[in-house]
Design brief:
homodimer; Rossmann fold; 10% strand
Chain lengths: 243, 243
């Protein structure tokens, strides 16, 4: 059989999702005998840059197996944390205005819906921001001493992302809201005010699994690749491998 | 660009390699912007069963991208822990005689060398066995109360695996020897006398990375997929995305 694929497309929170306890690795482990989880995370990228590279990240099939011709069963689109950088602070070059972020997300979703009409496209909102921690762990020189991301801005982009999902009729994980339902979200879920701890990764994993299941995609709905050891007859193992 | 692939083919120690701290996930994280790490682990399988399913796990290209037509840059073959089950104990149905194990490994390597002459095929020996722990954590009913795997047998299969690597002129990770160089290997590296702890997974990851590097395959030798954030000009970011 050919295993179905699940693509993870996003920024650093996707690129780092195979670190220890990462949500991408957890998905790959969860689907270890059923689907391939393919990492397409690009640290620092916003939706403007994502749009520029979309055709290169997901090239059309070209006869061999090098392209991405076969429709994946699912694909996550997880951008916004960089778009939401404050425009007049130290990471301004990553900022994308809110209305353009919405347009870009629409364009990205349309690209996938046109390429792969059957694929479950799942949006994920940016996480909340711990501004104090963002001042303590700057990524670039920060002479102003002000956080380059704010939780309020992240919330606006999260709501915009939810709006796009609604307009496109596709599911969305509202990570910004979900995480803030826990009192110590800023310390338990975030390691530097933006990126995820193991617990934060676990939240993303569980939310993604839940959304996939709501859309009919779970371990029971995907064929298992080759007989499980529990289904192999100890008295005649080779019987399981007749074609 | 199309990312190169690294396949991980093996038994449960491969199938579980994307659990928290797993060696497969660590590889995927290490190569997060350069190569796709593809999981093909089948719990409980020995080399006899692996041979039966080889064509199904790695189907020839069939025009679309569903096959495995493009040569991966590397592929690990990690079997032997099940072949080495003691023939007259409770997991006897997984046992494969030593001479057949060698023949099977040869056949598996030949299959890949014929299919993909340029692919770096890496053998990994079975890990050492903690027999006391194997009695405490039985996988099947064990009325005899004897360990279904012994460290001595695992060592014989490990030496056979190293022999095959030598005969084929391909690299091998001697996990059986490497792990036993540490005094508390049985507690630190193994969680049930056979499968790996996070520390044990780390050993596999480091050994695999080292072998790949010795064979010329490392982060510097594989092109990065799209510009890194550090290489994007903050004053003119879009310049980086001109084709």
């Amino acid at each position: 059989m050919t295993r179905p694929k699940i693509y993870l497309f996003g920024d650093s929170i996707t690129e780092e999702s195979f670190s220890v306890g990462g949500w991408g690795a957890s998905l790959a482990h969860h689907f270890s005998r059923t689907a391939d989880v393919v990492l397409r995370g690009y640290s620092g990228y916003n939706t403007r840059w994502a749009l520029k590279v979309l055709e290169r990240v997901f090239p059309a099939s070209h006869g061999g197996d090098g392209g991405t011709g076969t429709a994946p069963i699912a694909l996550s689109v997880f951008f916004g944390a960089n778009d939401a950088c404050v425009p007049d602070r130290c990471s301004a070059f990553q900022h994308v205005p809110l209305h353009e972020y919405k347009q870009n997300l629409h364009s990205i979703v349309s690209f996938f819906k046109k390429r792969w009409p059957t694929t479950l496209v799942l949006l994920i909102t940016p996480p909340p921001i711990d501004e104090d921690a963002r001042c303590r762990y700057p990524y670039v020189e920060n002479p102003q001493g002000l956080p380059e991301r704010t939780n309020e801005a992240a919330g606006e982009y999260a709501r915009a992302c939810i709006g796009v999902a609604g307009e496109c009729g596709i599911p969305v994980v509202d990570l910004w809201t979900k995480m803030q339902q826990y009192p110590d979200w800023n310390k338990d879920y975030l390691c530097d005010g933006l990126h995820l701890t193991q617990s934060g990764n676990q939240v993303v994993f569980e939310e993604v699994i839940t959304k996939l299941r709501e859309e009919g995609l779970n371990l029971e709905s995907i064929p298992v690749d080759l007989p499980l050891i529990a289904d192999i007859d100890p008295n005649d193992p080779l019987k399981s491998f007749l074609q």
